[in-house]
Amino acid sequence: MPGCFRLGWQHGLLDEVYKARDVGVNSFVLFPKVPDALKSPTGVEAYNDNGLVPRTIRLLKDKFPDIIVYTDVALDPYSSDGHDGIVREDGVILNDETVYQLCKQAVSQARAGADVVSPSDMMDGRVGAIRSALDAEGFNDVSIMSYTAKYASSFYGPFREALDSNPRFGDKKTYQMNPANYREALLETAADEAEGADILLVKPGLPYLDIIRLLRDNSALPIAAYQVSGEYSMIKAGGALNMIDEEKVMMESLMCLRRAGADVILTYFARQAAVVLCGMGSA
């Protein structure tokens, strides 16, 4: 992914956050690259209070107390199987056992100072379980941004390569959504609202503008869109080959997500786009 790097939790990360804040970006999402030695079938490293993500949250909140820290709640970075859930011997994903682990992960992140936890696993019932777990530990003010409509998309490739998080076998089609099915997004919206989600997210972004609009028209909650690694990389590649004007296409793509109804946009272009929006010229 051109212009994107795995950052050290103490050095490169702080510099990147400082530069982003300087142009008005104040919200950050953390995705860890976990050493293979710390991965296991049940992903227990996910809720290690001294693990990479909790350490990073504490550091960021200490250095930049006013920023908003979003976290990813899922087992795939910590799983030796590379799946978002615990895998049974016959290859079946264990929903309830996974949700139990996700609750511990979310509480660990909240304890470290996370403002918003973001379950991206697509297990059934996880939003309600996480909300109950957070409330039971006194984290009533920690919000939940649910990956409500996360599709089994081919646009995730560059991200999975960067974090070495491809499944070790099979695919994620039994728990992520079928790209051909838009109606399931309505069922997921109703479920996540009922379970206590604060923000509903659609992933990917541009290929799913109709889903963003569908959620916008059927929910009063804030809608988020994730402009994923494949979308970002295609624009970068087109610009590098002088086939498109990278900056103009970048800004148009973000405008389209906003027009479709997104209140929040997760994008790897955040700092580059903010430079343009600040009137500071090309990034």
UniProtKB/TrEMBL annotation:
Entry keyword set: Allosteric enzyme, Chlorophyll biosynthesis, Chloroplast, Heme biosynthesis, Lyase, Magnesium, Metal-binding, Plastid, Porphyrin biosynthesis, Transit peptide
InterPro entries registered for this protein in UniProt: ALAD, ALAD_AS, Aldolase_TIM
EC number, as in UniProt: 4.2.1.24
GO cellular component: chloroplast; cytosol
Cofactor(s) demanded: Mg(2+)
Annotated SMART domains: ALAD
Residues the record lists as binding Mg(2+): 188
Coiled coil regions in record: none
Keyword Transmembrane helix carried by entry: no
Described function: Catalyzes an early step in the biosynthesis of tetrapyrroles. Binds two molecules of 5-aminolevulinate per subunit, each at a distinct site, and catalyzes their condensation to form porphobilinogen.
Oligomer and partners: Homooctamer.
PANTHER family in alphabetical order: DELTA-AMINOLEVULINIC ACID DEHYDRATASE
Family statement: Belongs to the ALAD family.
Protein name: Delta-aminolevulinic acid dehydratase
